[in-house]
Amino acid sequence: MTDFTPDGNELYETIPSPPSTIGRPPKYETPDLLFEKCRQYFATCKPEPLTFPGEDGKPLIVLDKAGKPTMIDHKPTLAGLALFLGFASRQSIYDLRDKSDAFAYVIKSAMTQIEGEHEENLFTSANGGSKFWLTNNARYSDKQTVEQTIHTEGEVKPIDRLKASVYDFFSRAGKVCPMYTKDFMSLLEGGRGGGKSYQLADIVLALAHDRKETGTAVCGREIQKSLEISSYPLLKDRIHHFGLEGEFECLDSEIRCKHNGVSIQFLGMREATRSDGLKAIHKLFLFWGDEAQGFSQATLDVLIPTLIRVPGCRLFFSMNRQYDSDPVYNEAKERGASIITINYYDNPYCTDMMRDEAETMKAANFPKWEHVYNGKPQQVFEDSLWPGDLIKKIVSAANFTRDTYCRVVVSCDPAETNTEFSNEYGLHVVGKTHGGEGHHIRDESGRMSPNEFASKAIRLYNEYQADAIVVETNAGGDFIKSAILTIDPTVRVREVKAKSGQGKIIRATPIANLAQMGKIRHICGGSAKLENQMARMTNQGFHGAPGESPDRVDAYVWGFIDLFGLDEMHSTELVFKSAMFKPAPGDCLTENAGVCYTAFDGEAFGGIVFDILKEKHADKWHLKITDYFKVSKDLAAETLKGLLTAGVHEVHIPEGNAGNPLITHLQSLYVGVSGIDQSDYVDKKLADRVIQILPAVKEGLIVVDKLPAKTYNSESGDLFTREVTGYVVDDKTPRPILGALCNAIFVEKGLA
Prior knowledge:
- This protein is an alpha/beta fold.
- The protein has 4 domains: 10-153, Topoisomerase I, Chain A, domain 4 (Orthogonal Bundle); 160-360, P-loop containing nucleotide triphosphate hydrolases (Rossmann fold, 3-Layer(aba) Sandwich); 396-570, Nucleotidyltransferase, domain 5 (2-Layer Sandwich), CATH 3.30.420; 577-748, Nucleotidyltransferase, domain 5.
- Helix content is 36%, strand content 20%.
- The strands form 8 sheets. The protein has an 8-stranded mixed beta sheet with strand order 9-10-11-8-12-13-7-14, with helices on both faces. Strands 19-18-15-16-17-20 form a 6-stranded mixed beta sheet. The protein has a 6-stranded mixed beta sheet with strand order 27-26-23-24-25-28.
- Strand 12, helix 10 (297-307) and strand 13 form a beta-alpha-beta unit.
- The radius of gyration is 34 Å and the shape is globular.
- It starts with 30 loop residues before the first helix and ends with a helix.
- The relative contact order is 0.06.
């Protein structure tokens, strides 16, 4: 059991009993021993079947008229508790309660649980005994209904009942109670049905009540559109549940503690951190972030420095972790916070209906159960450039030794603005070993002024004996270069610049592929914040908060582009070449033969003919390339007519100014000609479409027959291979064959 003695809370301050010099030694020397014995007693108070000995001496269960076991209900009582504790009378319980406040807390908790059992009985027909017990032991008043408890000296107050409930919950669950630790930050994580939000709502009320002076507690979510979807309704319900209306006042937009003036407020953190609304809060001593899987790193970077200004402040989060890269979880790990996992099977009050629902999902869909009810994070984002398994594989605890490296550089990506909530300055130390392996060595990214950034880059340059500082000069980088050279003109600065149409995803993809090939590692334990961004880099784009930019990743990418001398990393060659040309699997069935996908590019019209194959006993298809063509637009109709006559039975043509007349013409002559709606994807830049089809290519879903040599105008040779592996982002050469490949995968994979 954990120490349940928070600082400044005299009620629960453990007061060790002085050594006894006369009489019998105390039966329970510490409150923990007493609590464990009470827990054991309540564990025995469960219904059990009525039995009698059979002829062979073995017990036989007594059945009722319906053939069901006759159950004996063992209700907890004070007398039963006294006897179980080894006392001769109930008076010994009261004597132990008066021994110290710590012992009193345990006894009051036990009495409250017995009281709760009798309260539940009031809603059954056989409640006479419970009414008698409550009237005589808990001072309930029976008017027409049992409405209230009359509190007199020595009785359990509602706030004590709430605290006892929290302590009892975590004790029964076998978990550390976060209310009674001394940790600044505590995280409750787990799946649905664990009771995390209920317990933290109670903790917020308890700590707000116990504060000795005025202050503010905040219950926040990343986005809060209204008070109705905040934690306000839950806290209001808990106040009513424990009868705390005399302690708290529920106002229109806040809850106020009557005796100390503490205000409990409810905020959307994205708006509060950007508008400085959080900083303006008076004496913020307590924060609870619910649904914390939605919190951004930018929110944490403002919240934590604001909170720690008040001595004794506490920070609580509750979440069902979505991904390994969740910022709150990583922040908790880095700070050594209390991370407590609570799931439905840990919750002593989880309903049978919830358990049945969870177990049904477990049997039907175990991976979904793992996340929804067992609290396991989902796998990384679909189509992530750096999947979670890859990140785990490349992170190493190896140390840095300069002699290991032939080159070391400091790589930079300047932020476009300089505000507290702006994007970060990316700043890394990366190196290339004598064996040709790339290493990420250190991450010093963050929010800072341009001069701070320049000074830090120079410090890392000198500390790691770097060969150069690599600076992206597209967006404010020229100023950073000038700032660096102004501080130290001897520093070697290398400029890198993104080419037109070359986005962060396009630049990052080849670097991710190098990691897949085992050519890049993260040493010195890696960087959780960098790897968090890497996991959210996908072929569909970066999955960040609105306005968030992956500047840590971009600086990282520029460093390795420089180290590996890859000035043409925007080429798809490293992406496609090895994965593209694979033979068709032998165990395949032809699902659809003769399907042609086409594309326009400038004055060129091209297409690829596929047989669509399905692997036996597997849900996997392959596009088997059997032919391709590239012709001028005026020959498009005649080419497609020839294909349809020769046996191609489906032709897909992108809609638009060029495609619609062709579609109409061919549909009047042939069946099987259809348009491709280009509104969702064909209008995207070819570079963006190429990036989005890469996963299908990497999965080996593109297979080929022997491709014939083709000629288009003055071009000759294997035009297909040339268009695919020779593609460069800013190349203006018509590439309709590559466009047709994109169209085929978009349609067949349902990416449109």
